[in-house]
From TrEMBL, chains A, B:
Residue stretches making up the Heat-inducible transcription repressor HrcA C-terminal domain: 104-323
Protein name: Heat-inducible transcription repressor HrcA
InterPro entries registered for this protein in UniProt: GAF-like_dom_sf (IPR029016), HrcA (IPR002571), HrcA_C (IPR021153), WH-like_DNA-bd_sf (IPR036388), WH_DNA-bd_sf (IPR036390), WHTH_transcript_rep_HrcA_IDD (IPR023120)
The keyword NADP appears for this protein: no
Record's keyword terms, sorted: Repressor, Stress response, Transcription, Transcription regulation
PANTHER family reported in the protein's UniProt record: HEAT-INDUCIBLE TRANSCRIPTION REPRESSOR HRCA (PTHR34824:SF1)
UniProt similarity note: Belongs to the HrcA family.
Function: Negative regulator of class I heat shock genes (grpE-dnaK-dnaJ and groELS operons). Prevents heat-shock induction of these operons.
Gene: hrcA
Pfam family, one: HrcA
Gene3D superfamilies: 3.30.450.40, Heat-inducible transcription repressor hrca homolog, domain 3 (3.30.390.60), Winged helix-like DNA-binding domain superfamily/Winged helix DNA-binding domain (1.10.10.10)
Organism annotation: Planococcus wigleyi
Length: 344, 344
DNA sequence: TGTTAGCACTCTAAGTACCCGAGTGCTAAT
DNA sequence: ATTAGCACTCGGGTACTTAGAGTGCTAACA
């Protein structure tokens, strides 16, 4: 159990280190406003805090820096979110100023503003496209042997894919197929599309369309594989280079690599979870991120769909500020996107 | 005028420096196969080459490195492109192995392979969308007051934009509008779209559609502003971090910043020009790139459309290799994309 | 008994001195 | 014209010193 004084010292130490990036010494601390103990007392307490694992030294006679456990305790118990300065609020709200008509545009813009505001890297995940519902489906022939399939969803998202047409196919067959697909697939979520395709739709096609076999096959292939990375938006990818915490080029490379690699995204942004989460250093599953902290938060669109936001910075991240910013933004985004989506 | 021996020494010096990234000394050079002069002779020649501005020293008693003028001369007169190793050819050709159906996919893949092959950063510009010709145009209503406009071009490219509908509009009006737009705009290039829209199409709309005013306005706005950065593809953005030439974090940041900023793209990739170009160091207009060399090449799709490829590396770039690679790729890309586009 | 002043000790960072080796320019011999 | 030889230069590594900030511990103090 920590005493009041220890709590105070831990908090001030972490705050100071977050701000200065320099190990904090007892002398330095004792001079801070709000601290009325001598450096000797603080030395004793810091030694104790180190014994308990909350602080660390970079070398035997250096000042202290927070350990991961220290950050964790700070984040869990000592974080008093202060209200955001008006200027930050204005900047955040500017996302919605120019009336953007597309979810994607708004998310892109959010990523940008977030990175500007925080000086860290932001990753935003749009709502899961697979939950979207087919509004319209069309097939536009391009040449003798290629056509483009277009799927419009209720959110205004448009998926399109070029696929090849078996040679010598009757153009009217394509039209017939498009009609049947529309009849059968409008109202279905992208998620369930392939199921529906294979079940009822195939049967009906068989009855009405010649050469349905090959046509169906290439179409199905085209529609099924999703553009998976299309839904991830970055802001301030280069902000890592601004952080004094990162100087090792090798590590920076690894980190940036990991962040861009689509396959790692689920590790960074836990897709299912609600609310705000903080992962500190080695709490991150990816070893390239062991020197980073990640704050994630989810937002809602309508009742069912959710997206998520992540801010990636050094462990010595300004947790207070970022939490406030993300709280505000996730609320605003939810409100705005839901409104847009519902079409009011 | 340079003597034979000076040419030889310049060439070997540049080659060696490109390979080793270390200043080249006279002793070192004299031991190279193909060099039969003593180090003293070479010293004299190098001093002469320095006086003429082809070589530089990093400090008074160091070996020589090529100056920009040196690289320029090397590139203009001493570049003997050697045939690519079989392995590289195989890797390049692998771009077309899996039958991708979309131009965009092929270009993306090219960017990736290029960066892997060269260890530099690649930027590929797709064919100018504005030259594409409208194949089909549709409007899909989403809610009471929003619809998505979709334009399919002859190349299979799909542009889509959500736009708002004035409240209380008759849905049949939208359909009418879509029909009229289709009648009038199919066959027009995206380039000329706004002209056509404003000239004839507006008149006809006026005659047939109620509330054409607001509807037309928002639609026009939506269709006109292009997604400009949509057509640029990167490979190996992080490869800069691999180059020993770049260690200054500040410079790296500047450079990466410039490369990603869409507005700088025209400065890097000269859109109009045909064939292969090399820009060395300060020959680049952007000051952030004064330590880089850029090799660009254009490729063709059909008879009219062109795209371009850029490889960005240190001035100490492996010009020989890159030129060979780009020569091969631009040819292949032209062939393949033209084939696809013509639909054979 | 909790707090603090004092002190010896430790370690980093910065500065200085030093040498080694690779390289140069120049001169004189071939 | 070429080259061997030599004095000189300079960067980079190693070793040593010093200043300053910080620590732990002990003993005095309220």
């Amino acid at each position: 159990m920590l005493t009041e004084r220890q709590l105070l010292i831990l908090k001030v130490t972490v705050d100071d280190y977050i701000q200065s990036a320099q190990p904090v010494g007892s002398n330095q601390l004792s001079k801070k406003p709000g601290i009325s103990y001598s450096s000797a007392t603080i030395r004793n307490e810091m030694a104790e805090l180190e014994r308990m694992g909350f602080l660390e030294k970079t070398h035997t006679s250096s000042g202290r820096i927070p350990s991961e456990k220290g950050y964790r305790y700070y984040v869990d118990h000592l974080l008093t979110p202060r209200p955001l300065p008006q200027q930050d609020i204005v900047q955040l709200r500017s996302i919605f100023e120019e009336k953007l008509t597309e979810t994607e545009e708004i998310i892109k813009r959010s990523a940008m503003i977030l990175s500007e505001l925080t000086n860290y890297t932001s990753i935003l995940l749009g709502p899961d496209v697979r939950m979207h519902i087919v509004k319209k489906l069309s097939i536009v022939p391009l040449t003798e042997n290629a056509a483009v399939a277009i799927i419009v969803t209720d959110s205004g998202h448009v998926e399109n894919r070029v696929f090849s047409i078996p040679p010598g196919l009757n153009p009217s067959d394509i039209e017939k197929m498009a009609n049947i697909l529309n009849e059968r697939l409008v109202g279905v979520s992208l998620n369930n599309l392939h199921l529906r395709l294979e079940q009822e739709t195939l049967m009906i096609l068989k009855q009405h369309v010649e050469h349905y076999g090959e046509l169906f096959h290439t179409f199905r292939k085209a529609v099924l594989l999703p553009h998976e990375d299309e839904n991830v938006f970055y802001g301030g990818k280069l902000n890592i280079l601004k952080q004094p915490d990162f100087h090792d080029l090798q590590k920076i490379r690894n980190l940036m690599d990991v962040m861009e690699e689509a396959k790692h995204i689920p590790m960074i942004l836990p897709v299912g979870s609600q609310g705000l989460h903080i992962r500190i250093g080695s709490e991150n599953t990816l070893s390239a991120m062991e020197d980073c902290s990640v704050i994630t938060v989810s937002y809602d669109i309508g009742e069912e769909q959710t997206g998520s936001i992540a801010i990636i910075g050094p462990k010595r991240m300004d947790y207070k500020r970022i939490v406030s910013i993300l709280d505000l933004l996730s609320g605003d985004l939810s409100k705005e996107l839901t409104r847009m989506f519902k079409g009011t």
